Amino acid sequence: MGETSQLQKIVATVFHTFCFFASSTLLLSLPVLAQDLPAGTALEARLSSATGSRISHPGDPIEATIIAPVSVRGRIIVPQGSRLFGSIANATALGFGVKHSTASIAYAFYTLQLPGGAAIPVHTQLVEVETAKEHVDALGTVRGIHPMASLSSSLAVFTVPLLLVDPAVGAPVWCIKSLVAPPANPEIHFATGAELILRLTTAVALPANTDFRAPVESFSRGDLADIGRLLKNSAQRAYMGSRASDLVNVLLIGSRTQVDQTFYAAGWLQAQRKSPLSLYRMYHALTKRMGYPSAPMNSLTLNGVPSAFVHQKSLDTVEKRHHVRFWRYPGRSDIWLGAAAQDVGFRFKLAHWTHVTDPHIDRERDKVVNDLAFTGCVEAAGLLPRASADLAQDPKAEHPIVTDGDVAVIRLNSCVHPKLMAGAGEMRALHQRGRLASTLATFRDDLVRSNIVFTTYNTLTFVVKHKAEPATTHALLTNGEPRGLDWLTAIRPRKVAPRH
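and the corresponding structure tokens:
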């Protein structure tokens, strides 16, 4: 009996060992999946070529580059540089405005390609075209501006009848109108480098090897402590005259040349100084509803000193732009204090027009970090908590600043061979015709689009169509939503050897 019991134990042991190795082999042969990207995940991408209602056609291939990493609990699973492939789903030119009330264009991205070649099917919907005058409807289609939504079109309602009734008087009046208020182009044109925000409409399962390293190194604890002391010895709030304004939320370490090269590679341009010429260009861009990538900005002071320079990023309107002002840290030539914010529109205040700034400044701070990291010019980065006393709100502010209080600290490398974003350095304005062609097009548009018959018909059509549009069914990118800095908060400061 004892021999039988011993034999049974041996058989059981062999059987269990066999089952263990068999199950292990089976598990190893199965594809291990990382955490899925849930539906609703935002993707920030930059178009690799120009698109528009006149130049694009349904079925045309399109490509975009991911410019902000997507991370889950500090693990980057869609890194910067990943690519999206798709096609033009629909493109409708306004033309003479008889068949369509506005121009439109729609994108369909269906493949996400990760570094290393893994191509993953995706379903996306467009949510926003960054810093564009056009809007995106509930179905993800870009809608152009209404042909009457400009100063020129409003004046043409009066000048065109005068031109037809009394050409001798109407011609010079029309010429003056064309010079003072040139017409806006209602067609859609997004230059190379236009930035899109998309959302996944279905969950996406990514392979296990999609856990990518952070694009930058972390600061040591000693470095962060030294930087924290520098911040404590400097003002944290910029002022416009005596009125509190933007809050410092970025600290850059690097020479002025390094800073300029890095922002240029990321597609940012320096703002011009105010002058009669720049003010005229601003007026021209406002009336034509077009972009002015180097538009001047109001001067703010920090520690009583005006900003040294300003970098900004925009598309086809002067109403919206990303921007960050920089001040040199007193006594240091390699440290810059920056106040990053986003202009989201215009308002009339104190007898003049001024920009409305998004109070959720953390999004803009994140935008700066992600854009600079894309270029490969960032050596180290981190988030540094700030004392709550530095976040005191201005009681007179109409829109109090909303922030977690952290300052993004960035140290640049030599930036000899930066990675350029698509379209970096190109003028992002609507294509300009020659003077003669522009004059003839202006006359044609005024004559066809600005008469009382067309104006009434097109306006009624637009109103009826707008009321018939379905309510928004997808979650828009809300103010204050992070731009993917989860990966940055997960970087632990490097330990440094104790000093003797």
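(Above: one complete record from the training split.) Residues 3 and 10 are 11 Å apart (CA to CA).
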